[in-house]
Amino acid sequence: MFTTLVLLVAPSLGFRLLGALGVDRFATWRVSAAHGLAIMLVGTGAAHFMPEGVTVMPSHTDLVAMVPPFVPFPSPAVYLTGVLELLGALGLVVTRTRPAAGLCLAALFVVMLPANIHAAVADVPLNGEQATPLWFRIPEQAVFVAVAVWAADLRGRLPVLRQRRR
């Protein structure tokens, strides 16, 4: 249940520690969290392409089972979301593309929420383990959305977020 959250938090802390030790790239929590989210997305995105026999993470088949019945073409949808997660991870580590990647990933996390709700309500197992309960999954997804938006660092980029000078 906590695996995905650990895949975000542990690398973020590690990157920030590197920043504290003098690695300029990780001098801020925001950039460290962006890289931590990228690490998480590489792990979760890779799962979209895993064959059924893999036991260290959910497989493509597991993820297809999560797709709600109203979504057409569930298998290609899982491949597409995997590609988008991997592209988002790449976008987060490139400073120039981080704002767009953060916003696009936040939208992707929202779009994928129905699959997580369906998995919890229909009790769809992942990698042989019980589905993450809804009481945990929705707040966890909210954390992913918040980190993606925070990593985008939109201060000064949108008129609403610009500080007024007097």
Q: What do you see in this structure?
A:
This protein is mainly alpha-helical and 166 residues long. The protein has one domain. The chain is built from six helices and no strands. Helix 1 runs antiparallel to helix 2 and helix 3 packs across helix 4. The chain starts with a helix and ends in a 14-residue tail after the last helix.
* SS-based class: mainly alpha
Oligomeric state as shown? single chain
Rg (CA only)? 17 Å
Cα distance spanning the termini: 49 Å
Low-pLDDT runs: none
In terms of DSSP E residues, the strand content is: under 5%
Reported for the largest beta sheet, the result is:
none
Helicity level = 55-70%
Number of separate domains:
1
Total count of strands: 0
Q: What global shape is seen?
A: globular
Number of helical elements: 6
Order of helices and strands: HHHHHH
Mean pLDDT rating: 91
Strand and helix layout:
Blueprint: H1 3-20, H2 29-47, H3 60-66, H4 74-93, H5 98-121, H6 134-152
Quick structural overview:
This protein is an all-alpha fold and 166 residues long.
List keywords for this structure.
single chain; 0% strand; 166 residues
